[in-house]
Each structure stands twice: as C-alpha cells, then as structure tokens.
C-alpha cells in the first residue's frame, strides 16, 4: 500500500514538471510587444521674409542741455536780495542771482572815473587853442560824462596829431584802466543768463564768498539731453535729427526726442560711439532715467525670431514632412530677446517655440500654423 502511494505521488510530480515546462516554453515563444513611436506636438510658423527695422535699445540719465556752474571771481559778503538763493528757485533771464557787497571796490572805480574826467578837462583849453576842429566832440563827451553811469566810449580820433596829443596826456591809459575796473565791478553781481531754475545752492546770504568758490548750479528746465553709448557697428547708421521714442522705467509714459548730436570718435576702451538725444517735456526732470529705442537701419529680406530658437551652430529647426531638420542661417543683429536672420527661404516652416530634446530626424506634429511676425 505504501509503495502504491509513493508511486502515485511520483507520477503526479513528473506530470506537474512536464506541465510547468510546457507553460514556460509557450511563454518564451510569444512575440514581445512593439513600443509605440512618440510624436511630439510642436508650434511652428511659416516664414515670410520682409523688411525688419533694426532698433537699438539704449538708456541713460537726463541732463539739462543748458546748465551753468556758478563760481565767484571776486571776494566779498553775499548780500540778500528780493529772492532767496535756494534750490528750486526760478529766475528770469537777466534777474540777479547773487549780489556780492562791492561798496569798497565801487569807491575805487569812482575814483578812477574821476581821474579820467579830470585828465580830459585839463586838456580842453589846449584843444580849444591848438585843435579847434576837434574841440566840439570832446566838449560833447565831457558834457555827457556821468560818474553814476558806465563810462562812455572815447571820441574817435581822426588824425595822428590828435592821437599823439590825447595819448601824451594819459587819457587813453586812464580810460582803459577805468574800463578794466568797471568790468571787474560787474562780476560782483551774477545774473541769470536764461530763464531757468537753481538746482544747487552752496552759499547763503551773509556768507563770505572767496574768489574761485563754487556757488551753485543753474539750469534751463525746458530742454534736456540724454547721452547713450551705441556699438561702433552702428556708427554710420545714426543720423542727426532722427526721431527717438523714450520711456520711463515703468513704461507708463513715453516721450518723443531727436538725435541732436553724434560724437565723431569711438571710445577706444568700450568700442562704442556716443549719441545725444534731445527731449522736451514739462514732466521731465534732470537726472531722470529713461530708456530709448533708436532706429538704426532697415534690414531687407529678413525675419525676426526669439534668440532661444537659434542654435549654437548658427542653425534653426525646420519641419519637413513631419520630421525636424536644421538649416544654416545668417544672424545680422541680436537684441536682448530677439535675433534678426537672413538666408531663410520663404515658405519654410520653422519652430516658433523651443522643443525639449529636439534633434534632426525627430517625428513631430504641428499644433498650429500661422504666419510669422516679421516686424514690430
């Protein structure tokens, strides 16, 4: 009985082994599933070459086109006037900015004028006797001479005898001595050379002012300039009188300006050329930071795309029969975010957005087809 049971169990074990081996063989012969090909969806544009304006971004701070740094040429006490010498004070052309006490110097000027007057009066008798033909004009000069006013110009001398006679009496030397003193006396008062505003005041009324001391700064707030540095490659493209659009940092306000001057030399260190943009607006203030867009030139038969679509090998991706390919291109201008390209055939379908892991030969499907923007 025991042998029978063992025989049956052995037979079952053999049958089970054959069954398991059969299943393994069957599974081994089954065909493996073929992985499905992944086709990426891409965004593409159809190329249409056009004329692309090359716009150069630049920025800088505004400075007044007309500004005067005020310096003292004489010494004295700063006298108070009708308006305080303070930053923000507005002055009209010809209005007194600073008056320095010139009482002592004024007395010396009057003394010199008196000496000139006396030297002319002393020769009047000789003129009447020896030069009766010129006596009337010198008599008129004496009659019009006013010590409280600016010394008038001497009468014109018409002969050598008259010149020698007048010069020999020291009239001419006395006259120019007076004019020199009067010229220096005028420097005790500084007047506004144009309508403007005081932006810096370094002295106050009652201050002792010394010769050569800086007193402040005065500007014309109606016209400003912005200095910008442009790449030397555009040196021959910028033209005086060209219109420029300027924006503040928040891009909430726009101003119109013109290129007023272009420097004739290139900075040897930075290899840039300096241009000056003139702008007028009541909202502008000196020192304001603005951004400008300069129209350098028009590039014909070109397109403009994002910089991240241009490969390091100076190539871009195109779609041909649902397969990615690359074509060589010629970049002609780079901005912060864009690049202008030439040698891209019309009708080419190029990527409008970068594709992660893209390579030549990749299967793709175009999501949407639209005409590329070729101008701003």
TrEMBL record:
A Pfam family per the record: BSH_RND
Multidrug resistance protein MdtA-like barrel-sandwich hybrid domain residues: 67-215
Naturally occurring in which organism (per UniProt): Flavivirga aquimarina
Name assigned to this protein: HlyD family efflux transporter periplasmic adaptor subunit
Entries under PANTHER family matching the protein: HLYD FAMILY OF SECRETION PROTEINS (PTHR30469:SF15), MULTIDRUG RESISTANCE PROTEIN MDTA (PTHR30469)
Domain of life (superkingdom): Bacteria
InterPro entries, sorted: MdtA-like_BSH (IPR058625)
């Amino acid at each position: 009985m025991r042998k029978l049971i063992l025989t049956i169990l052995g037979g079952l074990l053999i049958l089970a082994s054959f069954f398991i081996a059969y299943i393994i063989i069957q599974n081994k012969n089954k065909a493996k599933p073929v992985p499905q090909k992944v086709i990426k969806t891409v965004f593409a544009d159809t190329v249409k070459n056009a004329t692309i304006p090359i716009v150069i971004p630049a920025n800088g701070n505004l400075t007044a086109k007309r500004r005067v740094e005020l310096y003292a040429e004489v010494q004295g006490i700063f006298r108070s006037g009708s308006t305080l010498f303070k930053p923000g004070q507005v002055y009209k052309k010809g209005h007194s900015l600073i008056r320095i006490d010139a009482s002592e110097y004024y007395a010396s000027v009057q003394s010199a004028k008196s000496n000139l007057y006396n030297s002319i009066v002393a020769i009047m008798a000789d003129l009447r006797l020896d030069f009766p033909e010129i006596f009337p004009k010198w008599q008129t000069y004496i009659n019009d001479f006013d010590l409280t006013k600016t010394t008038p110009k001497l009468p014109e001398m018409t002969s050598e005898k008259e010149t020698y006679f007048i010069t020999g009496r020291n009239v001419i030397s006395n006259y120019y001595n007076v004019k020199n003193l009067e010229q220096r006396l005028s420097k005790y008062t500084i007047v506004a050379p144009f309508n403007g505003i005081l932006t810096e005041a370094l002295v106050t009324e009652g201050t002792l002012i010394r010769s050569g001391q800086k007193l402040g700064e005065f500007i014309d707030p109606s016209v400003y300039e912005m200095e910008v540095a442009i790449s030397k490659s555009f040196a021959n493209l910028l033209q005086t009188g060209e219109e420029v659009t300027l924006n503040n940092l928040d891009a909430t306000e726009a101003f119109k300006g013109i290129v007023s001057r272009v420097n004739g030399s290139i900075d040897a260190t930075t290899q840039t050329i300096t241009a000056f943009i003139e702008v007028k607006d009541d909202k502008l203030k000196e020192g304001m930071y603005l951004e400008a867009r300069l129209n350098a030139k028009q590039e014909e038969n070109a397109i403009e795309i994002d910089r991240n679509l241009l490969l390091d090998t100076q190539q871009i991706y195109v779609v041909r029969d649902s397969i990615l390919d690359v074509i060589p291109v010629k970049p002609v201008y780079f901005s912060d975010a864009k690049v202008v390209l030439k040698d891209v055939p019309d009708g080419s379908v190029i990527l409008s957005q970068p594709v992660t892991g893209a390579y030549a030969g990749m299967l793709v499907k175009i999501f949407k087809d639209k005409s590329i923007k070729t101008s701003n």
